[in-house]
Structure formats: C-alpha cells, structure tokens
Amino acid sequence: MIRNLQIRHALALAIVALLLVVGGLVLKNLPRGPALEEIRAPLQDADLALQAFEYTETRAGRRQWTIEGDAAGYRQDVEEALIENLRVFFFDDAGEEIEVTLTARHGRIDLAARELRVWEDVVVRGGNDYILQTQSLEYRDANKTAATSEPVRILSPGADVRGRGMRMDVVTRQVEILSEVHALIAPQLFDEGTP
Amino acid sequence: MNRIASRMLGFVLVFVLALVAVTDAAQERPIEVTSERMEMLSAPRRVLFSGEVVARQDDVVIYADRMQVFFREGEDSVARILAEGRVRIVQGERTAVGDTGVFHRDESIVVLTGNPRVYQGKDFVEGEEITVYLEEERSVVTSREGVPARAIFHPREETR
After folding, report:
1. What is the pLDDT averaged over residues B66-70?
2. What letter does residue A192 receive in the DSSP assignment?
3. CA of A186: which chain B residue's CA is closest?
4. A60 falls in which pLDDT band (50, 70, 90)?
5. B41 to chain A: which residues are within 8 Å by CB?
6. Which of A39-53, A130-144, B83-97, B132-146 is most confident?
C-alpha cells in the first residue's frame, strides 16, 4: 500500500514537474509586447476614444511626425495613446516630410517621453531604398532613431538581408543590423520580394 | 625558370579569373553573405558587412573582417566589392590572401594588396600588388621597391 502511494506520488510529482517545464517554455516563447487584453483595456477605459485618428507631434511649431490610425484611445492620467492599424509619417528638422513611412497593427505613444512603440506586422518603407519588416519597433523622437531587438528583414534593390536587432536613423535612412546577419545579394530582389 | 614562372602566372590568372567569374556571376545569381553586423549606407549606396564576414557562391568562399558591396546608383547591380582585413579567398585547394581585395566591375580588374599571396598547396606567388586585367586576359604582379615579386614553386617530385 505504502509502495503504491509512493509510486502515485512520484508520478504526480513527475506530471507536475512536466507541466511546470512546459508552462515555462510556453511563457518564454510567448510573443513580446502587450497581450490583446492589455491593448483593448486602454481603448475601453480611454478618456477619449477616436475613430479615423490622426495625431501630429510638433516641436517649435514644426511637424516631427504624424500618425494616422483606424482607432485610438487616449488616457490622460498616464499621457498615453493606444492606436490600432497605424501609419506614421516623418518630417525633417525643417518640418519637411521625408520619404519614410511606418505601418503596424498596434502602437502606443508615450506623450511625455515622446516615444512611440509599435508591434505586430511592422513595416518601414524608405522610399525606393528599402522595406524593413519586424514584429516590434521603438521610435525615439529625441534622436530620431528607431530600434528593435527582434528579428528583422530588409529588402532593398539588389539585397535581401535578415538579422537580429536593428538601429535606424530615420532622417539619414542609415540602417544597422546588430547581429546574426544573413544576406543574399542579387539584382531584382526588391521587385520580386517586395511584399 | 621560365616554365615555372609561366606556370605560376597561369595559376594566378586562372584562380583570379575564377574569383572574378564568381563576383561577376553575382550580378545574375545571389551571393550569400553572413556576418555579425551590417550597415546600409548611402552616397555612395553600399552595404557594409563587418565581423567574421563570409561570402559564398558555388565553391568559392571569401573571408574578411569587413566587406563593402557598392551598388550602382539607380541600379540593382553591384559596381564594386571591397574586402578588407585578413582577406582570404578560397576555391578548392587555391587560396588568395591579402589585407585588401577589390573587384572593380567597370575596369574588369581585381586588385589584391597588403602582402598579397596566391597559394596552391605549398606553391605561392607574392608581390606588392596582384592585378588581373580580365578583358586582356593578363595579370600583373607588382614588386615592392627593391624587392622583386617572388614565386615559390615546388616541383611535383618534391611535393610527393
């Protein structure tokens, strides 16, 4: 009887340990960024909810960047705006639009810090120079740079580059892949591979 | 000696032609590059790979600390490839080394500098600079001032 109990206990412990390991692995591999509930909650609790939203950030009267979105919620207490299906347009120091646009499914603006975080199906188009795809990106207005630690893919005329981690100067369009670079160099890649 | 020198020059020519055929073929077929980091730069439009750079096509592999691929403005084609820092180009038993290797597409030349050497097994040729003129099918090994270009060739009997 005691032996049977010991076996059952051992089995139960093994199952619990297995569940813990599987649970840990699942948690570890969950996509980064807020969960869907986290996204919806601020929209529902927003002080101001908007459809067909457009927001322009200015500095000294000059446009810095403009965001268009299908829906947005603004929470005054934390100076935060959450935007769905957003498109971002950037401007140089003179307030002139530059040929860089960003699209993503979700975005969050920290109005106090003047920072923008976007996630899910993030695409940056630099005119005819390149298309960048990733799943998460943070834009800092202070130095006009965008960065991610996620895997990235860049399609440009003659090159298809994949890697992990990226820094981009939005004004100069200089792009840096930080690790694990794997590139294919051949003509016509941009035309054939452009999503 | 003439026969040996002729053989060495032929060896250099064939090897570098193979290298250039590879870089030239990159215009048509992809060349695969892996590295630690990469920067896309403009004016001139180019891609800079750095950190353990390895470029492959078919059986040719180019290793370097840094490699810049220069594109033609307004076009997708490669104009020039500049490999720098511990450059090593390997095809089968043949290996070329130097501090810098440049393929100039417009001039159809390849230039190896910085103690360039081209090896096949134990045999090698070296000089100040090794340049290959593709369309004229000739190559030039430039000597250092006061130091002649050198070729070390092991006759087959010795290498057995």
Report:
1. 93
2. H
3. B30
4. confident
5. 174
6. A130-144
Token representation of residue A179: 């690790």
Which pair of structure tokens corresponds to residue B126?
A: 């070296």
Q: How far apart are CA B38 and CA B41, in angstroms?
A: 10
Peptide bond into A31 cis (omega under 30): no
How many Å apart are CA A9 and CA A16, to the nearest integer? 10
- Estimate the share of chain B in helix, then strand, then coil, as percent rounded to the nearest 5: 20, 55, 30
- For the complex shown, is ipTM > 0.85? no
* Strand duo A175-185 + B37-41: pairing: antiparallel
Q: Is A174 on the interface with B (CB under 8 A)?
A: yes
Amino acid of residue A45: D
Residue A42 has pLDDT above 70, yes or no: no
Helix (H, G, I), strand (E, B) or coil at B112: strand
**Kind plus residue range of the DSSP H or E element containing B125:** strand B123-126
CB spacing of B78 vs A185 below 8 angstroms:
yes
